[in-house]
Specification:
The chain has 222 residues and is of the alpha/beta class. It has five helices and 15 strands. It is globular and about 45 Å long.
Length: 222
């Protein structure tokens, strides 16, 4: 598996184009984008054990299989259940037989029953890595983010909950208040500016880059 050091990683990938790799201690992150919705898919891998988790069964199962080849992937962890994030669900369940984990709040969106229900605060051990589940509803009822500690910084996989420029789409004032409360209390209130954010679509960001705009997001609504 070809690695790239953190200095060459910028998180800018094109749909169905080359992936990017980075490492931070034993954490190895691989990012790539699939199909017309520019869905980001991530491989979280422990380089000490070669165990991994895949974030979102979005699309292009053949491309996903290529990206996780030779890695002992334990499961797919879903950030949420919207259609563009689950199109490879059945194909990956069949080959290479990956179980799908996620939050039961999105069960009505998922195409099949979850193999494991994840809850807020759950810790998933992946080799030497500890992957913490953060349930932050608002974009959907079951939206989850996944936090991994590296040697140099924290790494947060947010799905459609947080993007450069603000939270993901919500369907009304109460859902917007819910997502903002979750982001302010569970993310910006807990983790420092160096925390790297990997969203479900598009380019990456950091909490430090986004933190000055929290009040503006509240004011504008969604």
């Amino acid at each position: 598996m070809t690695m790239a050091d953190a200095t060459s990683y910028d998180g800018r990938v094109k749909p169905d184009g080359p992936w990017q790799d980075r490492r931070d201690g034993v954490l190895h992150v691989r990012k790539f984008s699939v199909e017309e919705m520019d869905n980001n898919v991530y491989l979280i891998r422990c380089s000490a054990s070669n165990e991994g988790l895949l974030v979102d069964a979005a699309a292009r199962p053949d491309r996903i299989r290529e990206a996780i080849e030779d890695v002992d992937v334990r499961a797919v962890v879903q950030t949420h259940g919207h259609w563009d994030h689950v199109r490879a669900w059945d194909a990956l369940k069949a080959d290479p037989g990956l179980p799908i984990w996620g939050h039961v709040g999105d069960q009505d969106l998922f195409p099949r029953q979850l193999d494991r229900q994840l809850g807020d605060g759950d810790v998933l051990n992946v080799g030497l890595l500890r992957v913490e589940v953060l349930h932050i509803p608002g974009h959907t009822r079951g939206s989850c983010s996944y936090l991994v500690h590296g040697d140099e910084r924290d790494h947060l996989f947010t799905g459609d909950t947080l993007f450069p420029g603000g939270p993901g789409r919500t369907t009304g004032a109460s859902a917007f208040a819910q997502i903002m409360d979750g982001l302010e209390g569970r993310v910006f209130g807990q983790f420092d500016d160096n925390t790297w954010v990997y969203p479900g679509h598009g380019n990456d960001t950091t909490l430090g880059r986004e933190r000055p705009h929290l009040a503006d997001w509240r004011e504008r609504g969604w």
